[in-house]
Amino acid sequence: MRNLKIIILTTFVLFSASKTAIGQNGNPEDYYYQIPDYPERYTAGATSARIVDGLGFRYYWGTEGLTESDLSYRPSEGARSIEETVDHIVVLTEILYLAVKEETFSGLDLEGLSFEEKRNRTLENIKQASIKLKSSSAEDMEKYDIIFANGTQYPFWNLLNGPIADAINHVGQIISFRRTNDNPYNQNLSVLQGKVKD
After folding, report:
1. Which of these ranges, 65-69, 82-86, 190-194, has the smallest mean pLDDT?
2. Residue 124: its pLDDT value, please?
3. Rounded to an integer, what distance in angstroms lies between the CA atom of residue 94 and that of residue 122?
């Protein structure tokens, strides 16, 4: 009987640990269910990563449960639809990801990709950029330039006020548009805490 209890307890602990590991290190669609724990100390890389994680958390929930009706919704004739906004955010996060990898952005072909594929790619871009930033020194940050294929180059500062801030802004648009289309996002979220409220 005692051995059975030990086996059950061990199984439960392993299951809980694996579930946590999946949420924090596994599939991109699980990674930002809640915002990752913050680092123990403030550094340039850790602070930048926290901003990126905030984007990931908002994007995860802003795009969770979107319907075909939502994806085609646009508030006016001249505005982007939600899916077109999703496409733009994929590009912005690709620029972010390539900057921290010190690689050149030469465009992105989204033709033929499903919404889920684009969503997963976006979440993976955000996740990998955040992981790299968390382990980056101040000297590393100076190497993370936005580099475009035409030779144009900008320092990391422009990444903060450009693609990252722009992506956060567009996630807000998605949340507003889906609410207008009668599909509000999860009301039990605390963006301050980066968690789903109990």
Report:
1. 190-194
2. 97
3. 7
Parallel, antiparallel or unpaired: strands 146-147 and 195-196: unpaired
Listed residue (126, 115, 120) closest to 92, CA to CA = 126
The mean pLDDT of 19-27, rounded to a whole number, is 41
Q: What are the pLDDT digits (tens) for 137-186?
A: 999 999 999 999 999 999 999 999 999 999 999 999 999 999 999 999 99
Quote the CA–CA distance of 66 and 64 in Å, as a whole number.
6
Q: Return the structure tokens found at 19.
A: 């579930």
Q: E strands within 92-197?
A: 146-147, 153-154, 189-190, 195-196
Is the CB of residue 143 less than 8 Å from the CB of residue 102?
A: yes
